[in-house]
């Protein structure tokens, strides 16, 4: 595996200006952080940008206040993923606390598709709704919003997705159309929380925690106010032990970004992926504060069963697709049996395993198109593929690593051939490169490594930094767990560094013969019997 070793020279000014150790200073220098960036990590102050900074903030609050005063029927229209479901629950709960019971709808991904549609607008008109609030969708619902306007329904759009032009809505809450809003990358759940908090005139620990989950599930950058949100939200979750979250996280689990992203969010998402098994609208009721305990237990059990079904279905169909697909520079599956709700999971599984692009589709007989999901790697940007080959797609969208698309029935084979030519004639590398900052052993002190905890929680755009130690000659090694793992003990000025290399049984004999080693990995503080020591978790060594 190749290493990209960063030698940082301009870190002393960070050390002097912010009174920090060299390890943290080198990270700030590598990332070219300005003072605001540094304060975002080192200050204990909550970073939170007020709802009033949105361009249409007053319009939204005035229209909602009018609806409350006139006892109008209000409906919250969400989305079928974790962000959309929790966004809806946040607003439904906020209105309940204002004494208003509102309607809500989580669309079925197969019957409704993504976003607000004309059929649902017509239904809401027939049911007497006069105010519709979309959350985590709506910014591209041009036709549905035009129909709502014709029928006398006002639509407030709360969304964070990209747009080409704005719909003709009553009001829109979106960071990128609000020049005074300083941080642009927040998800639907955080937008919904900001509206809820503004309506209630206060912060709410539980709703704040739900917004933190959506920020992790939607893989938003963990910087600026997102980092504050997740950090404080995790604190609240660990302190308050909310029933709805306790039932989903599993026994003896602590709330952190990993358990939010891999324990809780997938269970919520599974309702939207397999709506034929249980209606995802039940989850909105589940996340309300006054949920009946028996109902909560029942829904949480459904969530575990459905998620288990989703996992087994994904593994089963992934295996079948692999067995029936030709070996190529990419995966292109359009004629294999696959559940539309898991095409993205199958694509992601392939790309993660083989470090190659993937395109997985399900045929939509009604519209005579193939609907698919695609995944790629950093060196082969998916959005570049879409843009370069746009004439072959009915529709597409996404970013460098993930996206969705539609292909006409009579173009599906042509696209496969075109992709093959494109990916074999362009120069790409799918070899993984480990990036790390070079450090010296004398920089490794307990205070310096502890200081790295200021960067937590780690996530998108705030990944845990790897460090490189080169040409170490003074060390001893020890085999652990019957030959599965290897530990190196390296003397420091005070104490030892324990460098742990997990699951290296095939290399142990060769590694133990080395007289000089170089390591790349992450640094941790290990606590055992009230004693603290420095650990390095090795990702690779030479």
TrEMBL record:
Name all RecJ OB domain ranges: 438-540
One GO BP annotation here? DNA repair
Q: Which InterPro entries does the UniProt entry name for this protein?
A: DDH_dom, DHH_sf, DHHA1_dom, RecJ, RecJ_OB, SSDNA_exonuclease_RecJ
* Pfam families per the UniProt record, alphabetical: DHH, DHHA1, RecJ_OB
DHHA1 domain residues are 329-422
Q: Which UniProt keywords apply?
A: Exonuclease, Hydrolase, Nuclease
SUPFAM superfamilies in the cross-refs: DHH phosphoesterases (SSF64182)
Domain DDH, first and last residues per copy: 73-201
Q: One GO molecular-function annotation for this sequence?
A: nucleic acid binding
Q: Which family does it belong to?
A: Belongs to the RecJ family.
Alphabetized NCBIfam families for the sequence: recJ
Q: What is this protein called?
A: Single-stranded-DNA-specific exonuclease RecJ
Q: What is the lineage of its organism?
A: Bacteria, Bacillati, Bacillota, Erysipelotrichia, Erysipelotrichales
């Amino acid at each position: 595996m190749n290493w990209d070793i960063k030698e940082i020279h301009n870190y002393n000014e960070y050390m002097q200006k912010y009174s920090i150790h060299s390890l943290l200073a080198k990270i700030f220098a590598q990332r070219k952080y300005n003072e605001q960036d540094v304060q975002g990590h080192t200050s204990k102050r909550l970073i939170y940008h007020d709802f009033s900074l949105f361009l249409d903030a007053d319009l939204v609050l005035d229209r909602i206040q009018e609806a409350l005063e006139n006892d109008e029927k209000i409906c919250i229209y969400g989305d079928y993923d974790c962000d959309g479901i929790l966004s809806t629950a946040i607003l439904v709960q906020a209105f309940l606390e204002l004494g208003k019971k509102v309607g809500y709808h989580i669309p079925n991904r197969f019957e409704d598709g993504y976003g607000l549609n004309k059929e649902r607008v017509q239904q809401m008109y027939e049911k007497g709704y006069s105010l519709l609030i979309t959350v985590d969708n709506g910014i591209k619902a041009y036709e549905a919003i035009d129909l709502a306007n014709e029928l006398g329904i006002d639509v407030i759009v709360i969304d964070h997705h990209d747009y080409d032009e704005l719909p003709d809505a009553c009001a829109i809450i979106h960071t990128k159309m609000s020049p005074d809003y300083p941080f642009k990358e927040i998800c639907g759940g955080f937008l919904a929380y900001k509206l809820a908090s503004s309506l209630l005139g206060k912060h709410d620990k539980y709703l704040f925690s739900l917004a933190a989950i959506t920020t992790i599930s939607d893989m938003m950058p963990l910087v600026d106010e997102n980092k504050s949100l997740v950090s404080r939200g995790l604190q609240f979750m660990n302190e308050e032990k909310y029933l709805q979250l306790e039932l989903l996280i599993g026994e003896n689990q602590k709330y952190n970004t990993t358990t939010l992203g891999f324990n809780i969010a997938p269970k919520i998402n599974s309702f939207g992926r397999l709506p034929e098994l249980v209606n995802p609208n039940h989850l909105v009721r589940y996340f309300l504060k006054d949920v009946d305990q028996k109902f909560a237990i029942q829904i949480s059990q459904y969530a575990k069963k459905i998620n288990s079904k989703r996992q087994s279905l994904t593994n089963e169909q992934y295996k079948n697709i692999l067995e029936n697909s030709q070996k190529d520079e990419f995966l292109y599956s359009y004629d294999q049996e696959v559940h539309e709700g898991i095409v993205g999971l199958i694509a992601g599984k392939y790309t993660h395993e083989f470090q190659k692009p993937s395109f997985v589709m399900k045929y939509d007989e009604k519209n005579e198109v193939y609907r698919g999901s695609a995944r790629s790697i950093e060196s082969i940007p998916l959005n570049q593929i879409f843009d370069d080959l746009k004439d072959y797609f009915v529709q597409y969208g996404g970013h460098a690593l993930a996206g969705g698309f539609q292909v006409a029935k009579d173009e599906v084979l042509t696209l496969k051939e075109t992709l093959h030519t494109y990916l074999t004639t362009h120069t790409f590398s799918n070899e993984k490169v480990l990036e790390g900052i070079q450090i010296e052993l004398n920089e490794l002190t307990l205070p310096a490594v502890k200081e790295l905890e200021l960067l937590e929680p780690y996530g998108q755009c705030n990944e845990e930094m790897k460090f490189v130690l080169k040409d170490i000659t003074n060390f001893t090694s020890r085999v652990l767990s019957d030959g599965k793992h290897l530990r190196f003990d390296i003397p420091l000025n005070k104490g030892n560094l324990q460098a742990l290399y997990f699951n290296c049984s095939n290399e142990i004999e060769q590694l133990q013969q080395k007289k000089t080693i170089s390591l790349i990995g992450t640094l941790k503080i290990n606590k055992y019997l009230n004693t603290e020591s420095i650990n390095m978790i090795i990702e690779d060594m030479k």
